[in-house]
């Protein structure tokens, strides 16, 4: 009897929990006002884990970021359930490697800023090339390794965003790979997950934009949890300029419900 209960408990408990990967590219405004729905939802859901991508200027911009950015980022860093990632574009491997390293150096420098905690924990590489080619592998392997040596964090997450099915090799270099970034109208629940590189759901993030208010996030997130997906985001608009408190709360509730 007790054993049966124990076994059922083991199968009911998720082996890992889905986190929310949030593209917060939007400028925070004064008093972090444009980020208020995000920070309110983070504060209201302390047991949900968030990885938040910040992006001052298609990359780190100039050092240090401006006063509004410093205030907003240090507020974000004050939540224990938040990990922050700096945005770095790669243009499918066409951005010179030296440009990547100079941007990573700038993000790393944020950790030396003493008046506020504006450190980022890791890096989100955007526009990742998902062609199975050795030149591609070398470029992204070196970029990811550079992050790990330069960013002084306990975890140093590295995220790649090809936004589509990705060769197995690239999963060796990143903690997380975004294998879907498309509008809600293109998201097909389990059928979409079935198009991903097999065997890597536990390193896979799904980013869905243009989500209608009628979307059944609970059901869609449940499928992701059952399929062992690592991270998720549902955004209301096409381009991550709008952060609806209502949709963020629904997403956090769906993740909590599992
Ligand atoms: C991706 O990499 C391959 C191999 O290096 C290259 O031929 C292709 O042009 C790249 N894709 C884009 C969109 O740049
Ligand atoms: C916060 O979300 C609500 C919808 O829940 C929306 O009406 C409002 O404009 C949002 N505010 C900001 C600052 O994004």
Describe it for me?
The chain has helices at 2-12, 36-44, 67-77, 97-110, 134-150, 190-193, 217-226, 245-257, and strands at 19-24, 50-54, 82-89, 122-126, 158-160, 176-183, 204-209, 231-234. With 258 residues, the protein is an alpha/beta fold. The chain has one domain (2-257): Alpha-Beta Barrel (TIM Barrel). Strands 1-2-3-4-5-6-7-8 form an 8-stranded parallel barrel, surrounded by 5 helices. Helix 2 (36-44) runs parallel beside helix 8, helix 4 (97-110) runs parallel beside helix 5 and helix 7 (217-226) runs parallel beside helix 8 (245-257). The longest helix is centred in the middle third of the chain and has 17 residues, at 134-150. It starts with a helix and ends with a helix. The chain binds 2-acetamido-2-deoxy-beta-D-glucopyranose (NAG) (2 copies). One 2-acetamido-2-deoxy-beta-D-glucopyranose is lined by residues 92-94, 129, 131, 133, 135-136.
Name every ligand kind in the structure.
2-acetamido-2-deoxy-beta-D-glucopyranose
Q: Which strand order does the major sheet show?
A: 1-2-3-4-5-6-7-8
Give the ordered list of helices and strands.
HEHEHEHEHEEHEHEH
CATH class: Alpha Beta
- Stated plainly, the CATH topology is called TIM Barrel
Low-pLDDT parts are 1-16
CATH architecture: Alpha-Beta Barrel
Roughly how many Å apart are the termini?
A: 26 Å
User: Whole-number average pLDDT?
Assistant: 94
Q: What is the makeup of the main sheet?
A: 8 strands, parallel, barrel
User: What would you give as the CATH superfamily?
Assistant: Glycosidases
Number of strands: 8
Instruction: List the total number of helices.
Output: 8
Shape: globular
